Amino acid sequence: MDKQNLIKRIMADPQNASYTARNIKPVFQIGSKVKLLIISQAPGLKVEQSGIVFTDKSGDRLRDWLGINSQTFYKSGLIGVLPMDAYYPGKAKTGDLPPRKEFAPKWHPQILSMMPDIQMTLLIGNYAQKFYLKDSKTLTQRVEDFEQYLPKYFPLPHPSPLNNIWLKKNPWFESDVIPNLKNEVSRILK
């Protein structure tokens, strides 16, 4: 199955009818050459409107954490982005609503099969980590213990500006985890 057929199938799914009726396409970035996969929460409103993953402040911070530029992120074909839900779930009191629970179990296996060369998956945020790691740890514990999940997974907090408080409370993330993340990314993308 190619990407265009996949998009058509996702849009034809009755579960996504309200988005399809408004001509909103699912937002993700996949390809057969992907080596580094990012599994994130769900697109925000700005990303839904652009149709391009991480075209917001979260994306700027994420690319900085990874030590890569926009060209590598979007044009190399080596970086994939697969949200837990490929549609914007709507606004909550603080931030956005959580991704719909039924999207990932239904679509991730099919999409992952289209990317056979993934060498590492970054699990961004609690939703992705709970779904894939199936443990009882907190996000902070997982990020602190990131080496335990290597080489398959690398758990990270969400790069959203809403997480500035978490970043200030956990200075070890910038000093200890980010250099390791940059090393892993550089090794994979060589």
Class derived from helix and strand content: alpha/beta
CATH superfamily: Uracil-DNA glycosylase-like domain
- Summed up, the helix count is 10
Q: What is the helical fraction, as a range of percent?
A: 40-55%
Quaternary structure: single chain
Radius of gyration: 16 Å
Instruction: Report the principal-axis shape.
Output: globular
With strands numbered from the N-terminus, the spatial order across the biggest sheet is 2-1-3-4
Description:
- The protein has helices at 3-12, 17-21, 45-50, 57-66, 70-75, 103-112, 126-133, 139-144, 164-169, 172-189, and strands at 36-40, 79-83, 120-124, 153-156.
- It has 190 residues and is α/β, with parallel strands linked by helices.
- Strands 2-1-3-4 form a four-stranded parallel β-sheet.
- The radius of gyration is 16 Å and the shape is globular.
